[in-house]
Structure formats: C-alpha cells, structure tokens
Design the sequence.
C-alpha cells in the first residue's frame, strides 16, 4: 500500500517478463500487456464482450469511507493440508483436496457458497483510495446454483516471513504445471479478517476473461502480511497480473490518489516551473534589458562618434577656410593659436 511507486516500476518490469513467458509458452489468448492487454480483452473473443461492454466490472477502486463495519460475512476456513496447485501464465491456483474441503465456505444472506479454489494476483487488483497492495488473494466460492462470491484479501509486505503461509508459497510446481501437494496454510487467519478491519462489498465481475458479471465481492479492508521474499516468490513466477480498476455503476467513482498525487506533482512541477518561469522571465527580461542597454549605449556612442567626426570635418573645413582667408589677408600663425578655443567650441556643438 505504501510502495505504490516502487511497485509500479516492478510491475512494468514484471509485465515485460509476462510477455516473454507468454511468448515462450505459446500463443496467449489474453494477457496484461501488448495487443492482448486488458483494454483489448473485449475484442479478442466474442465471449469476452463483457470485458469491454460490461457495466459491473471488477476490480474497482474503493473509497475507504465505504468500509462495512458490521454484518460480517460468515467465513469458514479450516487449515489447508493438501491441494492441487497449478501455475499458469497469470496466476498460481490452489484447489483444496484435503479432508476439510467441504468445510470451507461462506454464507451470504443465508446462501452457502463453497470454496472452489483460491489464487493470487501481483500486485493487488482492487485499490483503496487509489492505492494498491503488493498482492491479492481471491478465495472463489460457488453456490449450489452456480453463483459466485469471492473473498479478496490484500497482501502487504513486511520484514518477516508469514509462517502461516510458508509452505503454501514454497511448494509450487513450475510454470504451466500442476500437482497435488501437501500444503500447510493456516487459513483460519483469513476467516477472522472481515471482523478485524471491516470489508468492502459490491457486485462485480471476474477480473479475467470472460469477465462474467454477477460476482458478489467481499474484500477485507485489513491486509495480510507476508515478507517481500514470499511475495517475490510468487511475482517471479506469474509476473504482473492485475487488471486495471474498472468503472462499476454500483459504486461511486473514487478519485485515484496516485493520479491525484501525480496531478498534484504535476501541478507542483507546474508551479515550480511557473515559479521557475517567473525568475527565468525576469532573468530574460533582465538580459533583454541589459542587451537593450548595451545596444542603446552603442548607438549613443556611434552617434557621438559620427557627430564628432562631422563636427571635426566642419571645424577643419572652417579652419581651412579661415586659414586660407588669413593667408590671403596676411595674418600670422599666433592668431591661429587663438583660434584653438574657437575650434573647441565648434567641436562641442
Ligand atoms: Zn482473481
């Protein structure tokens, strides 16, 4: 939740890995980047049309003010001891096959939804006030008549490994493989989550194609904690696997905090640029002014020089005329010396 920017970079890096894996593993029907990215899902296949045209799509960005603090959904999650684990291009999925598999369910408005499987996304698909977590686990429950209720749990990084999930995350097969393994996971931690910090509830869809709607979502507001080592173990396998948040007519649109923060940053940058622009302008003006002054001074000096030269020429001409006149009238050079102040006066004109 608090490493949004860092994980954004990791996500971009990871999405590249996903593309590489998808290419290596053959043609991918849909993905999280390139020509089969989420924005194109609706056009990839007629059966995916809800991805593009649906009005109740998931995931969404929750306003923290929408947290439910009462009427906790009834969730039963006994410890998982054995599951069929499948690693695909976009997720790791655990299907319980232990003796407690029928005892994991949730009850919503009197209807029982049996846990069918759970899987993980990195980073989280749902956002809260525009922020996302490091990962999100979806516990997919199904009713007898085929309706879906999904319980979502955010995962947040902490320093210590979470022992409750230690064996779950380490005992997984390779990419594209599936196997039944002893899987120790103390899921009772999960059943307490709604009551611990509240939950979000809305009617949405599958977050992957075919994006079918009518999914009753319950997302715990308080995250589970796992170490970066544990989260990375998953992220290394599946890469970036989060659909962008969708507009859902069941929920009010929430201002996306990172976007708002980015806008604020931009605004700050703008104002910084603005405040930089001002000094720059005044500096420019100053420079222009200085240049103007320099230019003005040069013109002045040029004018003075031209006027001076013209003056000198006029004085010289007058002097020559007078000298000529004196020569003609027989006056001496002494008198010429007296004419120097006169010449100075003529120069000043
Ligand atoms: Zn999911």
Sequence:
């Amino acid at each position: 939740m608090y490493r949004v920017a860092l994980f954004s970079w990791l996500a971009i890096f990871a999405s590249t890995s996903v593309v590489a894996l998808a290419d290596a593993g053959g043609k991918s029907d849909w993905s999280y980047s390139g020509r089969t990215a989420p924005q194109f899902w609706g056009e990839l296949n007629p059966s995916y049309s809800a991805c593009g045209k649906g009005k109740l799509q998931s995931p969404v960005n929750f306003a923290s003010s929408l947290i439910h603090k009462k009427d906790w959904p009834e969730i039963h999650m006994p410890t998982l001891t054995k599951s069929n684990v499948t690693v695909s291009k976009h997720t790791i999925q655990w299907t319980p096959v232990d003796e407690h598999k029928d005892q994991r369910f949730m009850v919503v408005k009197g209807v029982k939804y049996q846990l069918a499987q759970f899987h993980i996304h990195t980073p989280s698909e749902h956002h809260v006030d525009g922020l996302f977590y490091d990962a999100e686990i979806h516990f997919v429950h199904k009713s007898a008549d085929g309706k879906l209720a999904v319980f979502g749990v955010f995962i947040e990084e902490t320093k210590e490994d979470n022992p409750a999930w230690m064996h779950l995350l380490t005992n997984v097969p390779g990419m594209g493989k599936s196997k039944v393994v002893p899987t120790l996971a103390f899921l009772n931690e999960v059943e307490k989550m709604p009551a611990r910090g509240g939950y979000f509830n809305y009617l949405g869809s599958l977050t992957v194609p075919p994006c079918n709607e009518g999914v009753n979502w319950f997302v715990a507001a308080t995250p589970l904690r796992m170490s970066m080592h544990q989260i990375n173990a998953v992220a290394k396998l599946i890469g970036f696997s989060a659909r962008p948040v969708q507009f859902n007519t069941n929920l009010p649109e929430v201002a996306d905090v990172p976007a708002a923060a980015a806008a604020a940053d931009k605004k700050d940058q703008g104002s910084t640029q603005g405040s930089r622009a001002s000094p720059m302008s005044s500096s420019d003006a100053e420079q222009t002014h200085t240049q103007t002054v320099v230019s003005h001074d040069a013109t002045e000096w040029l004018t003075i020089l031209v006027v001076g030269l013209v003056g000198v020429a006029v004085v010289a001409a007058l002097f020559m005329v007078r000298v000529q006149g004196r020569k003609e009238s027989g006056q001496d050079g002494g008198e010429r010396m007296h004419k120097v102040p006169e010449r100075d006066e003529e120069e000043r004109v």
Q: What stands out?
A: The pocket of zinc ion is lined by residues 119, 121, 138, 207 (CB under 6 Å). The longest helix spans residues 257-329.
